[in-house]
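User: My collaborator and I are trying to settle a disagreement about how two of our proteins should look. Neither of us wants to argue from intuition anymore, so we agreed to look at predicted structures for both before our next call. Could you fold the first one, then the second, and keep them clearly separated?

Assistant: That sounds like a sensible way to settle it. I'll keep them separate. The first protein:
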Amino acid sequence: MPAALLVMDFQAGFLGLFDDPGPVIGRATVALDAARSAARPVVHLRVAFPSDGAPVPAANRMFGQQFRGRMVEGSDDVAVPDALAPRPAEPVVTRRRTGPFVGSDLAPVLRGLGVDALVLTGVSTSGVVASTVCAAADEDLDLTVLSDAVDDPDRGLHDALVGGLFPQHAQVLTVVEHLAR
């Protein structure tokens, strides 16, 4: 089975942290369009909290502190750019933590698709992308990170992860390099 493309957290609440998210959105769109054209599986990951749900504990620095009261279902924060919006047949996995597998349906969705390999796009590199690389490697999934279709507001941290941590667990390719394979 071909690898599934994960399109992760391209949501207004996260994209608003970037000076110019246009380039990463554009490159992720190229990867998404290519996966769709090749009839490869596409899975969308997103963060959304129920409006009436219990707050995330403050000990969770990401969602309990930095994003407290944000990323609420139905709010502008969870909106996705039209170019990266899911199509009806594409699974959308909602999660409430940085990790993609914790408390979400990602593992059963991937099993249902027969997927044993992932290609990663998303924001931010130091959040969902890093967490997904580590967790998916522990799940023995074959990984590819599209280095120019992931991004982080902290350029130094992005470069350190893409050049240091990610190659320990994944192939790291540009979108053009990936599509040429």
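The second protein, kept apart from the first:
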Amino acid sequence: MNNHREFGRFFDGPSTGPLVVRWRDLDADAANEELERLGEWVVWFAGRYGLDHKAIPPCWNKHGAVVEEISALRTFWESCFQDDAGPTEPLAFHRDLTLAVRRLRDWTSLLGCTRIVHREPS
């Protein structure tokens, strides 16, 4: 079974819509490939919204909960700009972004990672 879902249906080819990534089902190679794609979005996203290492530490990709949160944010953000998206969807993203950034800060605080130190999960 494919490891991506587009709006509730599985697909075998390229997608024009946002992807929902099922991280638990990816093998190591597919996970690394997806992390690379997500990383490109994270660079843009963190810069665009002025998020620092307290929300998204440099080692974000080594922490499952942080990866899941960021991946969900990317999916939500992409869905807001689809042709069939409603005009208020970007506002919904920003409403939920506040909660997501709070969760990211909480995760990062619990992890103990800093701008220069990565701590392995215990």
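Some points you might bring to the call about the second protein. Helices lie at 28-48, 64-80, 89-111. The beta strands are 4-6, 9-10, 20-21.
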